[in-house]
Amino acid sequence: HIPLLVQLPLCVLLIHLSDPSRARQQRCPMSCTCTKDNALCESAVSIPRSFPPDHICLCVCVCSENCELFLFICTIMSYLVLLSFTVKMLFFFSIRSLAYNNLETLPKDLFKGLEALTKVDLRGNHFLCDCKLKWLVEWIYGTNATVDQIYCKGPASQLEKKINDLSPQSFDCITTEFAPYQSLKFESISVEAFSFRNDQYVVFAQPFIGKCGFLEWDHVEMNFRNFDDIDSTSTVICKPLVIDNQLFIIVAQLFGGSHIYKRDTSANKFIKLQGIDVLKIRKPNDVETFRIDGESFFVIADSSKAGSTTIYKWNGNGFYSHQSLHPWYRDTDVEYLEISSKPHLILSSSSQRPVIYQWNKAVKHFDRRTDIPEMEDVYAVKHFQVKSDLYICLTRFIGDSKVMRWDGALFRELQTMPSRGSMVFQPFTVGSWQYAILGSDYSFTQVYRWDAKKGEFVRFQELNIQAPRAFSPVSIDNRQFLLASSFKGKTQIYEHLVIDLSN
């Protein structure tokens, strides 16, 4: 297909030579009138992206007085083609003009295959310099042809800029989306993704039916399928912990005590390893695992009046109580993080502001360091990093949730999100993107994406999840997913899609 343009004032004629024998049936473009060989498009603001390939001539007009003349030229040119007008001669045309046609955009790769062009005239048009026109900037950037100066009429960020001076890097055309992928027919209150022996798994705490439900990735069907279960009572957390190629599951229950299970790979099942002290852990609400100086720990936040948030340590054969942090405070969440390369814990409580503990290396215990001022009624705290900066997301069921930044001495408020009815404000990364997802029991779940230029989160997408309680990202087979537990509806799995808006 070799196109040739002929121009009169405010009109453009495209002679499109094609091989009729290879033609496929396609529809006539909207706002155009088609005959067997020709297409007439009046009052067009852009050149049609496609038209029947057996058409020899495409006439695009924005001026009615010249359209009949152009259609006549089309007909003449059609006969010239049918009379064996040699295609090769068209390569000698060094000039293409689309000037003064009030065009706002051009079809991608319009000039592809026309390396012989020496001049392109696009003056007098009003181009929208969005992602759909990025290809033109790339073409101008790499072509040897002369292109007269042209300007952007929009969007606002590009208004009146010279298109010739733009670079392809000035276009931000890559965006993302969380698209529904798989719906699981059960309610859940927590979700954890983990790897064990080169396979990827997820585990959900399902309190209503009383079990930890494990799923594995099916590499053939490309979805998650059932793998195994651990029966339990009023399960609130199923926390995986891999130590020396051994898989342990901490099963936290509201009734009947909490337990630790181990995966018996020879028998291909979970076996109960030990119980957890019911005098200290009466009403578990969160479990966090971590390593310090090569040693493995987990901590259980206890939300009862008589219980105590307790740290447990692996001794090679089992887990034993290492430190009780404080009794009587009804802790709802515990978060492990490093501040200035030193291990810390942040405890959230229904009876006090979040408290920060720092690891004392000499005695191998956590000491109380400080609290987070003016932040009462915080249900949970989760941390994330952007480059070298440390941030935390603070969840509040009543009032506003917060994003805070560590300034070297204190966490200071950076951003406020309305969050009535929120039980989870979870930051996570997928590839190079940093997100935070704010669940709600009363409205849509809000996904925020980090804006590096603003240095804060911006609202990105809404998800319809009933009573969300936890989220976990997972990467499998070069695909990224987000797992979402739902306390009152179906557990959901979303796929993270990367979209190029310039295509």
From TrEMBL:
Keyword rRNA processing tagged: no
GO cellular component term of the entry, any: extracellular space
Keyword Electron transport appears in the UniProt entry: no
Entry-linked PANTHER family: LEUCINE-RICH GLIOMA-INACTIVATED PROTEIN 1, LEUCINE-RICH REPEAT-CONTAINING PROTEIN
Subcellular location: Cytoplasm
Major subcellular location class: cytoplasm
Protein name (record): Leucine-rich, glioma inactivated 1a
Secretion signal span: 1-23
Family matches, as InterPro entries: Cys-rich_flank_reg_C (IPR000483), EAR (IPR009039), EPTP (IPR005492), LGI_related (IPR051295), LRR_dom_sf (IPR032675)
One of the protein's GO biological processes: myelination
